[in-house]
User: Fold this.
Amino acid sequence: MKTKEVEKKKDQLKPPKIVSPKEWEAARQQLLVKEKELTRARDSLAAERRRMPWAAVEKEYKFEGPDGKASLLDLFDGRRQLIIYRAFFEPGVVGWPDHACVGCSMMADHVGNLAHVNARDTTIVFASRAPQKDIKRLKTRMGWERVPWYTITDDFDKDFGVDEWHGHNAFIRDGDKVFRTYFINGRGDEAIGTTWSYLDITALGRQEEWEDSPKGYPQTPPYEWWNWHDEYGSDEASAKVLEQIRRGRAAGQAGGDAK
Amino acid sequence: MTKHKTGTREEWLHARLDLLKAEKELTRRSDELAQQRQELPWVKIDKEYQFETDDGKASLKDLFRGRSQLLVYHFMLGPDYTAGCPSCSAIADGYNGIVVHLANHDVMFWTISRAPLAKLQA
Assistant:
C-alpha cells in the first residue's frame, strides 16, 4: 500500500481504547487462552497430516541442478524427507528475467538458514522452469544463495498440482522408493517459512517426543536438538546448548510453553 | 520405523481433500484470532526508555523510524554470554529477509538484547 493510502486509512481508524497496564494484561491473558487453543489446533492438524497415506511416485522425473541432471531421488540430497516449493521464475512470468514472481520472491525471502531443517533429516528445495544460468544469477542478486534451486524439465509441475500456481509438495523416501506425503498451497503457503512450519507439513513432523505420531516414529526431546546453525555436528556445542536449555527449563522458561 | 499406510494417487487425493477442510478451518480461525488481537485495548507508555543502536542513542519512539507500528524481539544475549541463546539464534536465522517487507508495510522490526552494542556488532 502507498504511504498516502496508509495515512488515509489511519485517519479512518476508530479511536483505540486506552487502558491501564493491569487492564491490558487481563485482556491479554484472556486472549492467551485462545492463542494456546490455536497452537494446539495447529499441532493436531499436523498430527492428522502425519496419518495421511503415502502415494508412491512411480514416474521418473528429471531436473537440472547446479551440478547437472538430477532425479527426484537426487533432490533429497541423502536425507529422508524432501519439500519442493514450486516458484514461478521463467519466461512469461511478470518480472522475467530480472525477477521471479513477486509472491514467490517473498517466499524465498522467508527461507532462513536451512541447517535447522536439515538437522531433522529434511531437505528443502525450490523448483522453477528457468534455466540454471538464470537461476544462478537470480540467487546471487537477491541473496538466496543458500536455497537449492532446480529446473523443472518435464511434467513434474503438472503431476504435482503446481503448473499454474505455487505450492509446497512434501515427500519421504524409503531407500530408493519415493512417496508423496503432503501438499500445501494457496493461503496455506502464507504460514510456511519457519523451521517449525516446514517440519509440520512433513510426514515425520518435528520428530519431538510430545507429538502425537504413529508408533515407532523418530522422536527426541523438544528444544534439545537445536543448535547454532554453524555448530551442528559439534559435540562440544551440543553439550553447551543442552546445559543451557535444561537450565532454562528447570527455571520454567522454555518448558512451561512446551506442554 | 513401522510400515506406513500407502495409497494410490486417487486415495491420497481423497484423503488430502478431506484434510483440506481442516486446513481451511485453521486458516480462518487464525484470521479470527488476529482480528481479536487488533481489538485489544492499548496501554500508553509514559516511561522514557533509552537504547543503543548502530546510529547512536535512541528512544522507544525513535525505534519506529517514522512508521506507525513497531515489533521488538528480545534476543537473549547478556553481557556475560559468549554466544546468543540457541533458540533465539534459530529464530533470528529466519527473519532477516522479511524486515524489508514489514518496513514497507508501515511496521518497523527490531531485535534487542542486554549485551553492549560492541558485542552485538562483533
Observations:
- Chain A touches chain B through 64 residues (CB under 8 Å).
- Chain A is about 35% helix and 20% strand.
